[in-house]
């Protein structure tokens, strides 16, 4: 469908869709999940052919996608996400009476969603951005990812079926194919009220710039990846040298390093266990069986970026394998904090099964490195209880550098839940005030409006006196599920 | 103080200030209010000399400013604004365990605040932007407004005293003087993490553009005013012709029309009561005693804008008075919806005691006008109970055009409370997802961070198991004030 026709239909459909009840939107989201499941093996096989991802992984990803749709259905049905806030009238207040004011979040309008190549299901057609936008009451124009067009069409069909079954206009969700120019036109179109994107820095930043230069700028939620630094403290490394190497390596290698949260930087102490740690890491990465990457472009970028990095001053290749047109072969390099601090190129993300070990000599170097980090999706800090003060000092720095700070485990594996933040300061995303995974993602596509002195009949249900759906509301500054006595 | 030194100190002070407890920040805000009150008549007299605003108005504005500081103190002390959200670990979950995740809002860092000429107290040095930024845990670099430098210095002194009394670094709040270039440098400086502004479209848009072009873009909350259209429905106009004219006129004239929410557009039916309505309006505006405007620049812009508008095709001057270098003399003009729809110039804000009456012939014209509106801080809709369907249709359109939609009363008078939205779609503001007045303003200066698998000792107090301050938290999807059993 031509992009401008899609946006016209999305605008018309918004006038219908924005007035749907939360039950209607919850039903739509659940029906989409059912329709996706009904696609059966064809979806998984198509996605596997197009993305080179194994069926087991895609089975998991389909589960995640459908769970995500159902979680947003639950959130919408529960309804408190609209932040209903009511200040009742104080007609006798001196010197002036206070009018009745009732505030809630309302949807922004048509949202343009760009899918990600590395998650053909969970971050694509019916992925987190589409699910949260539909949940909020926005209509969606989805720009097909060229890496998996057939998968995208299948999922689009499932969404279309669901819209039809729920008696909603087809303009609520539309699917647009095309190249970079089509994407640009979608972002620039006056009907577009927000944009969501998951992918490279280059792609995300170009979209952001276009959107900010519009006559009417619109919010852009671009998740552009990060290097996800992992810090290992001295006592911790001593305690468990080989096991930590294996744990870090597994996260670096997961999905051929094609996750936004793969740890691409390991800060480790320069101590008497550095050598055994490096040997264990080297062994893990050397012996890993390479898998096909998503497509040749991704593989090409991986080897190009790697080649460039290994030529930087003070960077020593530890594991380096022959390049391939499609297979992602693991790599490992080493440098030290002094070199790393001097060279911003060593902060660039290399998307693939690679990590750069950066050794530090002392606490000052460690804190200097933490302070020099650019914005990250995640930071990870592994220390012992005996290193609490150092952990505290690092935490004070790292919490301002990332969206998620881990103290155990690995950053890969992004939970779809209430407390998740999959976001972080620029350049991890273009809007650090949001998350692209988890329940709070719904708030990206809404804004507050206050109804003042409104007759009950003209108020949205959420703001009427009788709290018929029992949502949590802030009434005169207090959270409550009560109705207002008339 | 040089701007770069101020930002350096603000960055250093942030490391201390971000770790203050909510009680410490509440104490600071209350102490600032006390110190402002302690300035006594000197503050009011200085502000009146610099702004031409009468003492009675400034007395009210001082009360508003101090109440605002105390309201944010209450919000911070209560503490639930941080949106603490906890998903507890599920170690036995299949196929993978769920880690413990705890999310809350944390402050962004140093915020640059630009004051407004029309509110030398409530939207300036210790105004809403500064109060909400300080409440959130951000440090502030305030750019003095050239319209009231002495007032600004006095308030700055009050804030400095409060910081000293509270044992906080002077870098928590700093005051910078200078021209447009200094403002630009403040916005462009890498240490700046967010910007707040109240003023003209030209000024706000320039700041927005600069901030988006930074290597690391930062949020800009610019409130740039609006025309605040007021719609009167046919039956309503019949019912109460003269009284509605008086009510509208009073809002147009309030403070010489120098409020962001003065109604600059009145949509009225072309009916047999249009003439008496226009006559009543004409009488009110003609007989109004003109007052000095804020400064000669504002007065100059008012008469220039007015002169330009009155030359537009199809615009008929009803009240037009001689221009003055400082006095704001009321004006009134009339056009119809067809003319208005054809000419975007008729949507431009004229800051001063003026309104443009736009007559509509029927419901279609009325809805077409509503649909053609650009983003507004407020829209007002006056109708009778008998006009409920038309009100509903207009509400469906207008709620997407503004931050606040009134069904009675006038848009001037912005309540500082929980349910207020003082914001709205571009060009009313640069970020429709926020408000610059009321409790939710604090969230502008914060972003979420998730702590995963963190030891209790490394968690912020708000996320620890024992909910020592009794804040509302979302635990496993349920709002509660309970602690977590260990």
Automatic annotation (TrEMBL), chains A, B:
<protein>
    <submittedName>
        <fullName>Aldehyde dehydrogenase (NADP(+))</fullName>
    </submittedName>
</protein>
<dbReference type="Pfam" id="PF00171">
    <property type="entry name" value="Aldedh"/>
</dbReference>
<feature type="domain" description="Aldehyde dehydrogenase">
    <location>
        <begin position="4"/>
        <end position="389"/>
    </location>
</feature>
<dbReference type="InterPro" id="IPR016161">
    <property type="entry name" value="Ald_DH/histidinol_DH"/>
</dbReference>
<keyword id="KW-0560">Oxidoreductase</keyword>
<dbReference type="InterPro" id="IPR044151">
    <property type="entry name" value="ALDH_KGSADH"/>
</dbReference>
<dbReference type="InterPro" id="IPR050740">
    <property type="entry name" value="Aldehyde_DH_Superfamily"/>
</dbReference>
<dbReference type="InterPro" id="IPR016162">
    <property type="entry name" value="Ald_DH_N"/>
</dbReference>
<dbReference type="InterPro" id="IPR015590">
    <property type="entry name" value="Aldehyde_DH_dom"/>
</dbReference>
<dbReference type="InterPro" id="IPR016163">
    <property type="entry name" value="Ald_DH_C"/>
</dbReference>
């Amino acid at each position: 469908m031509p992009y401008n026709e899609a946006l016209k239909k999305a605008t018309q459909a918004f006038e219908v869709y924005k007035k749907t009840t939360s039950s209607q939107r919850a039903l739509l989201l659940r029906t989409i999940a059912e329709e996706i499941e009904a696609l059966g093996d064809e979806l998984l096989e198509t996605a596997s052919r197009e993305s080179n991802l194994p069926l087991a992984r895609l089975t998991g990803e389909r589960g995640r996608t459908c769970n995500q749709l159902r979680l947003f259905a639950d959130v919408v049905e529960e309804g408190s996400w609209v932040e209903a806030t009511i200040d009742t009238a104080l007609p006798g207040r001196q010197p002036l009476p206070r009018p009745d004011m009732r505030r809630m979040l309302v949807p922004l309008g048509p949202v343009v969603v760009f899918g990600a190549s590395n998650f053909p299901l969970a971050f694509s057609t019916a992925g987190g951005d589409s699910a949260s936008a539909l949940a909020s009451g926005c209509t969606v124009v989805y720009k097909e990812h060229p890496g998996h067009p057939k998968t995208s069409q299948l999922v689009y069909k499932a969404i279309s079926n669901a819209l039809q079954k729920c008696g909603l206009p087809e303009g609520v969700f539309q699917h647009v194919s095309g190249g970079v120019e089509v994407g640009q036109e979608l972002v620039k179109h006056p009907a577009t009220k927000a944009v969501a994107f998951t992918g490279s820095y280059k792609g995300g930043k170009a979209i952001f710039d276009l959107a900010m230069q519009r006559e009417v700028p619109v919010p852009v939620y671009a998740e552009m990846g990060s290097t996800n630094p992992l810090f290992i403290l001295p006592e911790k490394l001593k305690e468990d040298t080989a096991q930590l190497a294996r744990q870090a390596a597994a996260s670096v290698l997961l999905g051929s390093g094609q996750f936004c949260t793969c740890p691409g930087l390991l800060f480790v102490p320069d101590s008497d266990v550095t050598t055994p740690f490096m040997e264990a890491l080297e062994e893990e990465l050397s012996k890993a069986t390479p898998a096909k990457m998503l497509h040749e472009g991704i593989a090409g970028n991986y080897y190009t970026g790697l080649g460039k990095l290994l030529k930087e001053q003070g960077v020593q290749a530890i594991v380096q394998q022959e390049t391939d047109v499609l297979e992602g072969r693991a790599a490992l390099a080493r440098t030290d904090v002094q070199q790393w601090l001097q060279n911003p190129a060593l902060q660039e993300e290399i998307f693939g099964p690679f990590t750069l070990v950066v050794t530090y000599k002392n606490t000052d170097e460690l804190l200097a490195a933490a302070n020099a980090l650019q914005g990250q999706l995640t930071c990870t800090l592994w220390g012992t209880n005996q290193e609490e003060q150092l952990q505290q000092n690092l935490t004070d720095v790292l919490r301002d550098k990332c969206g998620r700070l881990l103290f155990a485990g690995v950053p890969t594996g992004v939970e779809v839940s209430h407390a998740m933040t999959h976001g972080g300061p620029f350049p991890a995303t273009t809007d650090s005030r949001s998350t692209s995974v988890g329940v709070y993602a719904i708030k990206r596509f809404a804004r507050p409006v206050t109804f003042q002195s409104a007759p009950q009949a003209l108020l949205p249900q959420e703001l009427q006196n009788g709290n018929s759906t029992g949502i949590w509301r802030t009434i005169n500054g207090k959270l409550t599920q009560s109705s207002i006595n008339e």
